[in-house]
Amino acid sequence: MPKSPPVSRYYDVQRDESGQRFIAVNVSGLSLLQNPLLNKTTAFTAEERRELGLEGLIPPHVSTFEEQKERTYLRYLKAGSDLEKHEYLRALQDRNEVLFYAVLEDHLEEMLPIIYTPTVGEAVKLYSSNYRYPRGFTVSLDDIERVDEMLENVTVNDVRMIVATDSSAILGLGDQGFGGMAISIGKLSLYTAAGGVGPDKTLPVELDVGTNRQDLIDDPLYLGLHRKRLSGPEYDEFLDAFVEAVAYRYPKAIIQWEDFSRGTAFRVLERYRKVVPSFNDDIQGTGAMALAGLLRAARIKGEHLADQVFAVVGAGAAGIGVAQAIRQGLQLEGLTFEEANARIFVVDRYGLLMDEQPDIETQQLSFVRRRGDLSGWQYAGEYPNLHDVIVNAGVTALLGFTGVAGLFGQADIEAMLERTPRPIVFPLSNPSSHVEAQPADLIRWTRGGAIVASGSPFEPVEYEGKLYPIGQGNNAFIFPGLGFGAVAARAREITDNMILTAALTLAEYTAQYEGQVYPPISELREISVRMAARVARQAILDGVCAERRIRNLSDEELEQVIRERAWEPHYLPLRRQ
Ligand SMILES: NC(=O)c1ccc[n+]([C@@H]2O[C@H](COP(=O)([O-])OP(=O)(O)OC[C@H]3O[C@@H](n4cnc5c(N)ncnc54)[C@H](O)[C@@H]3O)[C@@H](O)[C@H]2O)c1
Ligand SMILES: O=C(O)C[C@H](O)C(=O)O
Ligand SMILES: [Mn+2]
Fold first, then answer.
1. Residue 203's pLDDT is what?
2. Whole-structure pTM over 0.95, yes or no?
3. Which CATH number fits domain 11-63: 3.40.50.2300, 3.40.50.300, 1.20.1370.30, 1.10.510.10?
4. Active site annotation includes 187
5. pLDDT confidence tier of residue 175, bands split at 50, 70 and 90
6. Residue 2's pLDDT is what?
7. Residue ranges lining ligand 2, Cβ < 6 Å
8. What are the phi and psi torsion angles at 150 (to 5°)?
9. Which atom of ligand 1 lies at the shortest distance from residue 174's CA?
10. What is the model's pLDDT at position 1?
11. ipTM score for this prediction
């Protein structure tokens, strides 16, 4: 059998005679200190310092890991704003990844909103002006012909998880040009912190196909290509070239498509999901996350999903993905496709989605209403608006994926109260500044009756002496476990069943938290490990598991293997190759 290539151009992980793992390195001195996958900064032992040419380059005191973590955390606390904290942690990640993940693991709940949503949104916007250090892979339309050569410049050889964006619809912030790289980085940090995929097995990618933001094009300090976005066949050719090159260099990698605008998200997913194992986080991850929360919410009401009437507002990648997931959930409860559709009302900027509207996209088609469907409805405008839909359809569950702050008004929520004392209201747009309604208002307007979840983290709401926790309905509860499971199974494809399994695992896990629709974010790692095991099992059942070694394991064994495989942040001894 041919010897597999080393993990990286600069090192390989090996075992000594007693079976202990160590890292054999072929760099030393400053080059070693500047490699974040190898650097231990002040924790290099005296022997490593001698052998690897580090003496004189770092302070004399050899820190313990505990000391390092304490120093790092205390310094972190000194950072003023959330953005400064984000930048401090990102700089740490670029210096010393093991330490970064160890600190993150110790303070996951506190730091998640800093490295991820909502603060990552700030980092996206300021990516060019605050740029410091390279991370990840980027290819633009100036150099796409050479993408395969360029991928050889990436020093790690065994990437398993890629997050790739074209930055066309970052969170609710719209086209962000090159800045979307910060999202790919943030998502992959969660893959390692919560999903157990080692940092050297991940690759953030920014696909620079241009930007339609004239202010960015006109800004000389903007770091992406200063030209309009590609579209049509040229766009497809660009992505074809990327996918082909990545599949060749990293044949075991799974791709997560992130924050593609609605016009391309569905096309890209369908075009490539059978070419390379890939899924779209905003469509499928969000769908699974929302379905899980809705299943819990219905349970809290002592009802079923099928007892609800849904309004999904925002017919983009997330909104349509969620509408599809709800339909799947309703079908699981025994409804037909048509019966399920009849309970789901999708609303976009013109109002209720209707067949006669301009630019209806393929993925929206099964959700459109015809005039004839609305007999007996009362509405004044050309199309029923959100309020009309709530009143006429008797909506009991309202979900927002518009990125429009304050879109859900008091009158809308009060209209829901006519139908149910416990309306389900999920304003899920990110970041916090784009939320469709403030959770505190929702609790107040419904006198504590609403079952609320938001996409970004919100403090629990106090109302008349009672504390109402606000669930964080974020696809972070899905993608790390789904992706890790797919990686563990070396899935040849991410099937719909695997995604549904992820949703059901999340819902089942949340059942232990009475009255809550999502678990605390501190549980993310445990959830992801369990989800990964169930997803890997589903991959086996669906015949897409290429990893032979797990195929015959029992459920318990499979979970055990995945738990043991999860990467943990601790230093391995370094030796010269
Ligand atoms: N909580 C989560 O995990 C999660 C996951 C994915 C997306 N989101 C959020 O959902 C939002 C949308 O993301 P996307 O990827 O679907 O974007 P998108 O661009 O694909 O879709 C946005 C949709 O909202 C519609 N819209 C805009 N203004 C509207 C209005 N006033 N009324 C009704 N519809 C309106 C647009 O026409 C478009 O169809 C973002 O804020 C994003 O952060 C949240
Ligand atoms: O990034 C997030 O926080 C969730 C989601 O993918 C989004 O686009 O809003
Ligand atoms: Mn997203």
1. 98
2. yes
3. 1.20.1370.30
4. yes
5. very high
6. 57
7. 117, 171, 259, 281-282, 430, 455, 474-475
8. -65, -35
9. 19
10. 52
11. 0.99
